[in-house]
Amino acid sequence: MIGGAIYLGPAASIGKVVGGAVIAEIANGSYQWFDINSEKNQSQPENQQKTWDYWGSTSAAVTGALAPGRSIWQNAGIAVGGTLFTDGPDRGALIGTRAGWAFGTAAGLVVPPLFNPVLGSSSAPIGDIIGSVGGEFINNALKDDINEKKK
After folding, report:
1. Across the chain, how many H-helices and E-strands are there?
2. 9 — alpha (psi -120 to 50), left (phi > 0) or beta?
3. Considering its fold, how many domains does the chain have in total?
4. Is 0.70 topped by the overall pTM?
């Protein structure tokens, strides 16, 4: 994943790279926190309860750092690469990643024109935040649903 992004060359300032990593990490951490503390997870036997996925967090941060300044299709490749790194060729994870990427891309394109007149163009990257958090929840919900049906 990192090698592929290095091949693509630098695409953003260090501030955008760090911001992308922080936004992605917060989105991933938020999802994991809600998932670990959900009633469904808490009702599982202790040895089957979900725990913090450190590889998933690392992959989210790296993916978020690599995304700024890239095209839509380059970001799709980075997202799929991150999924392959953490989950391998898991069908549910790959479908979830595609759906999360599609939501995140749509939010990144649609949200800024709606919020910039109100918040100003130099405000927080609200499209990236909504896209990242929403994409994370959609991605993992689909992944869990597909893999649950597979069992």
Report:
1. 7, 0
2. left
3. 1
4. yes
